[in-house]
Design brief:
alpha+beta; 65% helix; 559 residues
Length: 559
């Protein structure tokens, strides 16, 4: 097998991470593809990497040979401060879901103490006035937002602070004017459809409805009561407009982990919890013993796409969890790895897009990257001393990873094991049962092909495993071993046919050698004579002939 070679990977960057778009054999084709993709896909940047594998110092190495587009922006002095989004440009932006989520995170303690949601802060004058009067709380929150956003807005901190205060004051002024006019709509008998009809008579339908509804919730003494009330109203109402308003309140509740668990039910580990939330967001979850009784109704509406903000809140919860450091399975990194691909498959829609957008897929890739470092791999391989056992373990790890770069890293660990002369000799000499070793090589070959490696790596590893198998087949004199171990010609022929049918040996070379040996064995004069003699026997021999006929049909080895 060749011990060196190279190919060219075309990578594109849409947001913050690079994705392999194509793999080419020559440099110019790769550059042409990169140039075309840059225009066709509206990518922020493209690059071409020359990826080489050198036998003298095993390992993949890459170097950039082409680049077009935006380089990653330089880190500013505030690069260690996470951006708090969205960047509001007018007072109405404060009502958006992402703005309310930021309010929840920044004002979690006061909101919890006052037992209100961000929406109740924005649509109830007394609540917003209370926050405004608690100067240090509001000041601290506004300053955090301003400091995080100035690298994007280009303003000075004090300018952004004053701008944000002006938005808050604008909302508060409108609420005070409404309170002075005392023209609030009253909800009677929980009839939200009547409330909506009344709101339609005003200039600001949403403002009138939401203000009235927040005043309606005000007497409830706890967030638990409010949560149950929202779920009950969602159960009782079918009007799309009413459900649209209730959707916003439910989304506000789901900013917190506890409410998500109350709705979806608990899970045995974090990985299963993420899959469960995705099932709910997709409208596919089934009720469980500890899920909320109203979950089936929520799932039904999510499936009908009538709870858009609730779905966004659930997906955001998944995204933030994936971006965190908590293990999917506590104290078991290997089992944790297996969840990455399952999560990606669950969030992938029929058109190939993701329910959480590219951000959630990128977060999974970054998490996988943390698990492919040398320290993590050493931990995964602890106790796996035999070369093929290590390859098997690495292939299992690869089956749970996503991202071409991460798969290439695992290939970079596998190839030195199966290509270094010392390791190859250790594999050849490792087993007393040569057939079992050949079967293991075949099993590994299939596992590697299923794991999701790029074709270049999968082919290289599969062919090298076949090369090792061929050395065992020839060097250990496997055909002579079959003759010695199974002197009965009919039984030997059946055994060889069974091995062919099972695909027991690696492809293509070892399987081809096995097929040729099996064919020569069953087509020999001695075998045919023995088969003819056995055909004249009793009923017991009929089963042998039947199996022989079936094996011929299934292997097509006589053609």
């Amino acid at each position: 097998m060749p011990q060196s070679g190279s190919h060219y990977e075309v990578l594109g960057r849409q947001s913050s991470s690079w994705t392999v778009q194509r793999v080419c054999d020559d440099k110019q084709s790769a550059i042409d593809s990169a140039s075309s993709l840059f225009k066709e896909l509206s990518l922020k940047a493209v690059k071409v990497l020359e990826v080489s594998y050198e036998g003298e110092e095993p390992g993949f190495k890459d170097k950039e040979v082409y680049f077009d587009g935006e380089r990653n922006p330089p880190k500013s002095g505030n690069s260690d401060i996470e951006l708090i989004q969205p960047i509001c440009k007018q007072a109405s932006d404060l009502y958006r879901l992402r703005s309310r989520r930021a309010m929840y995170n920044l004002l979690k303690n006061p909101l919890g103490g006052w037992r209100i949601l961000p929406l109740e802060l924005l649509y109830h004058a007394e609540n917003l006035q209370r926050l405004n009067d608690a100067g240090q709380i509001l000041q601290g929150a506004v300053q955090k937002v301003a400091i995080s956003q100035i690298p994007k807005t280009g303003q000075k901190v004090n300018e952004r602070v004053l701008e944000l205060y002006s938005y808050v004051n604008e909302v508060l002024k409108e609420l005070k004017n409404q309170r002075q006019k005392d023209d609030f709509i009253i909800i009677e008998d929980d009839n939200l459809e009547e409330l909506f009809e009344a709101a339609k008579e005003t200039k600001d339908i949403e403002g009138a409805f939401m203000t009235a509804f927040c005043r309606y919730l005000h007497p409830l003494k706890s967030l638990d009561e409010k949560f149950e009330k929202i779920l009950q109203l969602i159960e009782d109402n079918d009007d799309p407009d009413v459900l649209g308003f209730l959707d916003k309140f439910l989304a506000d509740f789901l900013h917190g982990t506890d409410r998500v668990k109350t709705l979806t039910g608990d899970s045995e580990n974090l990985g299963e919890g993420i899959l469960r939330i995705l099932d709910v967001a997709l409208g596919e979850a089934k009720p469980t013993a500890d899920s909320h009784p109203k979950l089936p109704r929520i799932v039904e509406l999510l499936k009908r796409r009538q709870l858009a903000q609730t779905q966004q809140a659930l997906v955001h919860k998944v995204t933030t969890t994936i971006k965190g450091n908590a293990s999917f399975v506590r104290n078991d990194p290997f089992k944790s790895v297996m969840y990455h691909k399952r999560i990606l498959e669950r969030m992938t829609l029929k058109d190939g897009s993701h329910i959480g957008g590219q951000e959630i897929a990128d977060a999974l890739k970054v998490r996988c990257e943390r698990l492919t470092g040398s320290t993590s791999i050493a931990e995964f391989l602890a106790g796996f001393d035999e070369p093929l056992d290590r390859v098997d373990r690495l292939a299992d790890i690869a089956s749970g990873l996503i991202g071409n770069a991460n798969m290439r890293t695992i290939a970079n660990y596998i190839l030195p094991i199966i290509e270094a002369p010392y390791s190859v000799q250790q594999i050849i000499d490792s087993g007393a049962d040569n057939v079992l070793t050949l079967k293991k090589l075949s099993s590994l070959q299939r596992k590697i092909r299923r794991a999701g490696f790029q074709d270049f790596f999968a082919s290289r590893m599969a062919l090298q495993l076949d090369e090792i198998g061929l050395q065992i087949y020839e060097g250990k004199g496997l055909e002579g071993q079959f003759v010695r171990d199974v002197p009965n010609q009919i039984e030997r022929g059946l055994q060889l046919l069974r091995l062919v049918m099972e695909g027991a040996f690696s492809e293509p070379e070892v399987t081809n050698r096995l097929r040729a040996f099996a064919k020569s064995s069953i087509m020999s004069v001695d075998f045919m004579a023995a088969l003819k003699e056995q055909a004249g026997g009793g009923a017991g021999n009929a089963s042998v002939l039947k199996e022989f006929t079936e094996l011929l049909q299934r292997t097509r080895i006589d053609r």
